[in-house]
Structures are given as C-alpha cells and as structure tokens.
Amino acid sequence: MAKISIDLKSGKVKKQSNVVIGIDLGTTNSLVAYMKEGEPLAVKGSDGKNTLVPSIIHFNEKDRVIVGKSAKERLVSHPERTIYSVKRLMGKSFNDVENFKSHLGYEIINEDEEKLVKIKVGHRFYTPIELSSEILKELKDRIEQELDAIVTKAVITVPAYFNDTQRQATRDAGKLAGLDVLRIVNEPTAASLAYGVGLDEDKDETVAVYDLGGGTFDVSILEIRGGIFEVLSTHGDTFLGGDDFDRAIVDHWQNRIGEKDGDKSFQQELRLLAETAKKSLSNQKEFKGTIGNTSFSLNTAKFNGLIQPIIQRTIDACQKALNDAGCKITDIDKVILVGGSTRTPLVKEMVSSFFGQTAFDKLNPDEVVALGAAVQADVLAGNQKDVLLLDVTPLSLGIETMGGLMDVIIPRNSKIPAKAGRNYTTSVDGQKNLKVSVFQGERDLVKDNRKLGEFILSGIPPMPAGIPKIAIHFIIDADGILKVKALEERSGVETSVEIRSQYGVSEEEMALMLLESLKNAESDMKARALLEAKIEAKNVLLSADKFMKNNKSILSPEEMQQTQLLTLQLKVAVEGTDKDLINDALHQLNTYTHPLAHRAMDHNIANAMKGKKL
Ligand code: ADP
Ligand code: MG
Which of 14, 33, 95, 487 could form a disulfide with 42 if both were Cys (CB 3.0 to 4.6 A apart)? Predict the structure, then answer.
C-alpha cells in the first residue's frame, strides 16, 4: 500500500517516496544524492546546473530564510545576516569556538560558557542545529522536486573525527528538517562506498581517504574487513583548505600591484577572482582577468609555487595518519581523493607521489561523499540484500552508581559489536552482595533513564570497603544483544545477564528521550554536581571522624577544636542544597587538616618503627 501525504505548502496531495537519500552536509558545500536505477546520482537544482548547494544561510529583514547560491551572493552585502561555516559550530560550546569566532562575519552569543553556542541574527537567536536544518530542508526540497514525492528517510555524513555531541547535533538537525536520520556515516567511509569498496564482503582492504575541502582538511586510514569499516586513524587540520589557495593568490597579486589594503569590496572581488583563477588553472595553464582597469594573471608554474608549501602540510598529516594506524605506505591498497580542492592538479600529483600510486579521482571529488551516502542509504532501504549492515547503539548504556547517578559504559552511537568495561568497588565494610542495575539513556540520573534489567553479584568474600575489585563488562554482539558481566577479581566470583531489549525503544520514544535530555541538560548537571558534592562530603566527614578518634594524642586542643568546628560546618552544609556551600566547607576542612594528617602519619610511622629490629 502506497502512502499518501498532503504537501502543506501547496495543498497538493503528494506521493510518499520510500527512497532513502544520502546527504553530504559540508562546511562549504552540501548536496543530496539518491540511487537511480542502480547508480548513485547527485541531484541538480531547478536551474539544472549545480549539484552543490553552498552551505550558506541568509536571513532577510523579515527573517525569511534563503539558502545556497543566492545566500552566498549576500555574503558581501549583508555579512551580519549571512551565516557560513555552521558545521564548525555543531556541538560546540562558546569556550570551544572562542579562538576562531573572530574569523566569522556574524555574531556568536556567550550566554553561558558551558552551553552550546548560539548565533545572533537581528533580534533572533539560532542554534547551529537549527541553521543546519535549514540547509537540510533546502536539500529535502530539492530531492522532492526531482522525485515529485515526499522524502523522509536519510543518511547524513560527518567527518570521522566528529565526537558524539557533534554527531548527535547532526542527527537532531535532520530531525528538525523533517528527516528520519537512519544513520550517521563517516565521510571517508561514504567516499569508499562510492568507489565500491566494502561492497564485496570477501575482499579485505586498507584505504587512505584524502579530503581537502574549502576550509578543512582530513586524511583517514580505513580498514575494511568482511564489509565492516574501521577508522584506524585520522589526522588533519580544521583550518586548512582551498580557501588558503585563494588567499595565497590574493597575497601574490597584492604584492605585485603594491596595494596591501584597498577597500572592503575590492578585497572581496579580488578574493573571488582568485578563486576563479584557481579553478580555471585546474584545466588550463594560464589565467587572465580584470577588476576595473587593473588586470591580473597567473600561470600554473607560479600557482604551484604558491601552494606547494600548503599541500606539503597535508602530506605531513598523511605520514602521521599512517604512523598512527601502524601502516606502511605499501599496506595502502587504494587512495581516494575527496573535496573540491583535490581538483587542483598539484594536489593529486603530490598525494599520488607520496602514496606511490595513482589516487582515485574518477568520481567528482566534491560529489563522492554524497554518492557514497546514497549507496549506504540504498543498503539501509534493503535494496542490497547481500551487504552487511553494521549498526550503532541508539542510546548510551550504563549502570547505576552511588546516589542514583548514571555511569555510561558504552556511549550512544558506538559501533556494534562493542565491548567496554570499568572497575568498581564496595562502599561498606564486609559487603557481600553488589546490585548491578543496567540503564539506557542520556540523562545524568538513572531515574530519568530506562531500566533494562538488574542482577546481584553475590558471594563477595568479606573485605573492608574499597578493597574488592569488581570489573563490570558490557558486551554487545552483532545482533545487538547486550551481555553484562560482573567479576570480583580477587575472589573470582562472577555473574552475568543477557539483555535483549535494548532496541525495544521506538524512534519516537528515542526522540522523546533525547529531547528530554536536551531540555533538562542544565538541571541534570546541577543535580549531578550537588549529589557528587554530597557524596564526597560524606566520605570526608567519615574519615575526619576516624582521624580525630585515632589521633587525640597528636593534635593540640586548638587543632582538635578547629577540626571539629570545620566538620560541623560541613555537616550543616551537606543537609542543604547549595553545592557551592558544600564544596567551600569541604575545601576549608581539607586545607586545614591536610598538614595535620601529614604530621599524624609521620608520627604513626615513627611509632610503628620503634622496637622493631631491622
Ligand atoms: P567542503 O567539503 O568543505 O564543504 P568542498 O569539497 O565542496 O568543500 O570544496 C570546496 C573547495 O573546493 C573550495 O575551496 C573551492 O574553491 C574548491 N574547488 C572547487 N572546484 C575547484 C576546481 N575546479 N579546482 C580547484 N579547486 C576547486
Ligand atoms: Mg566535504
């Protein structure tokens, strides 16, 4: 039965397509691709020309959004209302972007240094997630025009070095654009898939993916075994790319005409002309152009001289990536070129010569990631039955620790099969049993997460608190079945359980849980900080009491009194809910008793040595 939906904009009834689309959400350019008659195809805009959509968002005076080429044209006239490079801000806090915010022509807001950044446009504030979702909506529109049907399922790519927060932000941007993001795929993995690497399960390969975009560079070494991609290493520079080629040309021209500054619009024109020169030198030897009455020229030899040192930096990174992966150059079976800047012949030449083999560039380097995403999307749509799917954990998995806190053992979006473990101990002297409660979710307190199961590790031999070594291991097999094992290492006592229901959560429930965790992130953080302060205070109070009991003879009456006073102060603070008050009292007590404890220790050691013959 075909699904039918109504397009709210036009009021027309539209077919619902079951195509899963592939999206490359780039720093400079983004694009959408899908599988058409067995071949991945990047979709052109309504002008029938460009597959690339500049990742630029312009808000006009009425806060109407314009994305892509038309937005790029407004970069010069309305810099403060035109946003570029949002990808650099995804999943970042204000502190994270502090050192490069001056490079951006728009305003970044410092509401709270710990929180995710916002961008101010006119009187409104936007998160990078919202801005990225505007780019994604543009791409969704584009493919819906092409297919004349509604599309809701997508695969989106991210750099291999993106962390969990950045991946999650990308996923959330998809959701906001009305897309069900079936998977976040690493860009180098997608590029390899576009060249068919990994589609033959019997073939094991090691591949180097070299990606030089507009403002970023990365190189990844991938190992593909049995259809499973593993990123062995990744290296790069998030401020190195084709823009640096443009800048080198601008500097060269300015030196030549002896004019360093010029006005702003001349500067912009010069930069645009430099980019045009660079692109034309990718397939001819000579460039000539003019701005006003001044003419500018550049030939390949000069251009190569300008950019050689820049490219050399990327080659150095390739060497580092090889070292980190523990690979020799001869271990690399294929080298794949990605990113618009690899169209520059000297780039291809230097990369090929470093790896000692001709780098792959048959597919358009600026489309290859999107094409590969379309291949992965097609696999997920179930159209390529014989290809193995690797999956990721949809939500974090962990156990409950003291005070009802969630201790994450396997983070969300980890590749499965997965294995991770951590050591714990007992909190009470002579404790024989330990309850292990397993939870799933992103909140700091387990009561807000979903309980998957629990079991008791029993038969721990009596030992003082803190002595038993209890290793808890989480193992998820290829079918997504979670096994949790607890082992007391000193005695060898062991228990384990199998939990099958970790995928029992529906997409909606998952979205809801994530939304809740975003909404409550701040109060969660506060609750966690308070609990942690209380737990630490209680421990310190216990040892302070012990200390005073055991060292009556060593401490002076004043020292005893002062210690008691500070202890009392901490006891009062612990009963309250002000974490700063607790931490302050803790600090005072610790600072005061630290030298006393040292003295007592020296004294006790001296005592213990007395009468002992050596
Ligand atoms: P990103 O992955 O960062 O979004 P792209 O892969 O789209 O970026 O690369 C954009 C860069 O590629 C820009 O610096 C652009 O000038 C450069 N570029 C595009 N076409 C060519 C070409 N024909 N020759 C050289 N550089 C090019
Ligand atoms: Mg890219």
Answer: 33
Identify the CA nearest to 482 among candidates 434, 417, 421: 417
DSSP 429-455: TT---EEEEEEESS-SBGGGSEEEEEE
Paired strand residues for 21: 154
Q: How far apart are CA 165 and CA 169, in angstroms?
A: 6
Give the pLDDT confidence score for residue 1 in this predicted structure.
33
Question: Residue 291: which CATH number?
Answer: 3.30.420.40
pTM value is 0.67
Please count the residues of the chain: 614
Domain termination residue (choose one: 362, 379, 412): 362
Same domain, 546 and 481: no
CA dihedral 272, 274, 279, 281 (to 10 degrees): 160
Q: Between β-strands 82-83 and 53-54, what pairing exists: parallel, antiparallel or unpaired?
A: unpaired
Ligand nearest to the CA of 159: 2
Verify that 177 and 48 share a domain, yes or no: yes
Buried b (16+ CB within 10 A) or exposed e, 530-565: bbbbbbebeebbeebeebbeebeebbeeebeebbee
Domain count, the chain: 4
**Residues with Cβ within 6 A of ligand 1?**
26-29, 213-216, 241-243, 275, 278-279, 282, 339-341, 343-344, 366
Q: Given the structure tokens 């002992």, which residue do they identify? A: 612
Q: Helix, strand or coil for residue 119?
A: strand
The pLDDT of residue 613: 46
Lowest mean pLDDT among 31-45, 195-209, 285-299: 195-209
Domain span at residue 22 reads 4-187
CATH number at 479 reads: 2.60.34.10
Domain boundary among 317, 338, 362: 362
Which of 262 and 587 is assigned the larger pLDDT? 587
Q: Tell whether 392 is covered by a domain.
A: no
Instruction: Give CA–CA dist 347/353, Å, rounded.
Output: 10
